Amino acid sequence: MSNRTVSVWTLVSLIIGSTIGSGIFALPQNIGSVAGPGAMLLGWAIAGVGMLSIAFVFQILAVRKPELDSGVYAYVRAGLGDFIGFTSGMGYWLGSVMAQVGYATLFFNTLGYYFPVFLNRWVLAISVSVLSWVIYWGLTRGLKQAAVMNAVTTIAKLVPILAFVVLVAFLGFSRDTFTADFWGSGMPFTQQLKGIMLYTVWVFIGIEGASVYSKQAARRSDVGKATIIGFLSVLALLVAVSTLSYGVLSQEELAALPDNSMGAVLEAVVGPWGGVLVSVGLCLSVLGAYVSWQMLCAEPIVLMAEDGLLPESMARHNANGSPSRAQLLSTVVIQFFVVVFFLSSASYTAMVQLATIMYLLPYIFSAIYLVLLTAREPGKDLAVGVVASVYSLWLIYAADPVYVLLGALAVLPGTIVYVWNRRRRGERLFNTFEWVVVALVCVGAVVAVAGLADGSLSLD
């Protein structure tokens, strides 16, 4: 695409395509496991304001700092220093890696409904591993995600979602079922609200990508317009799927569904063909997303290596133009998490929660950077930064502490590499603020190791 030729509607389609992923297919079960209809609706209202503010953080920063184009972590590094920028980039990379395992698990679990051999945990682990290494082999030989694949996967996920909304709304929704236990009497309302939060973030991962397209927009104002239209379109689909599901099955029934819970809800309304329709869409969508995200997994590593935060060798490309070393590292770590998740019997839900915690790092620090950047300029941009910062920090508070602690443990090995690289380059390790962050990461990692050792922490 040439510069400044992308229309507002093309931007909208790009935003919707990059945001709608595997999460929406598991949404009925995910939300049904933690909240009743009332908490669900309020949760989406909060998430709507919060995630839109985060989307605008990246859009505002893209306009204010057009020279910073090294991914979402670049803003954090510019405002809060090398180590916090590195931690954000590492969090985004680890979130992408963990998400890969979650995507593949959902893919093979869905196949397992029709081919039970994939429900065997060892077969599932081997299948995820083989898929990851086959895609790595293709990427190192110059495989690109073709426009045809983008088109197929976009249609594959939107057709069953729209079919779900229409069919359930007209054939399966029962007001009595929806209102039977509206406030989720089985658990405190605040606990329900906290429980739903990380799932609402997971299904919005990618909304920050709107800022990537700002340079290609025909008009800069189109980016803000497209962000609102694209965001509200995605939010409408997410709220529709969530709300309609509560009108078909009770909260307890939704919580007991398999990972491909959208398919199970539609099957309850129209019969087996509804489940097949959603399952085919899910498999095609997730497979396309798996290829593109494994390709993108290497990007934060390459960018941080080019910026001197990791060894320069990690940015090298092979003869096919592939960042083979970064992709090898990403695939090795994907394989590591396959072993960790499957040995610990981690569920798809646990993978999602941990990946979301990692994604929150660049969100939080980017929002704080915008506040610092606009602190002396009272107005809309400052308000957006404040809302996004408060929302992001509240998400960490709302998260299960086990995922926060395990997130600290996941970041620690990268910190060791960072220290080694700084010493090799003869650069200062940390400033005072960074030492505080390092101390918190180390304490969290130690607590996580102790909890895993005595069994008080797990990913079950």
UniProtKB/TrEMBL annotation:
Xref: InterPro entries: AA/rel_permease1 (IPR002293), Amino_acid_antiprt (IPR004754), APC_superfamily (IPR050367)
Transmembrane segments: 6-27, 39-62, 74-94, 122-139, 151-173, 193-214, 226-249, 269-291, 326-344, 350-372, 379-397, 403-421, 433-453
Localisation: Cell membrane
Membrane topology listed for this record: Multi-pass membrane protein
Membrane among keywords: yes
UniProt cross-references to Pfam families, sorted A to Z: AA_permease_2
Predominant localisation class: membrane
Lineage top rank: taxon: Bacteria
PANTHER family: AMINO ACID TRANSPORTER-RELATED, ARGININE_ORNITHINE ANTIPORTER-RELATED
UniProt record similarity statement: Belongs to the amino acid-polyamine-organocation (APC) superfamily. Basic amino acid/polyamine antiporter (APA) (TC 2.A.3.2) family.
NCBIfam families in alphabetical order: 2A0302
Protein's UniProt name: Arginine/ornithine antiporter
Gene transcribed to yield this protein: arcD
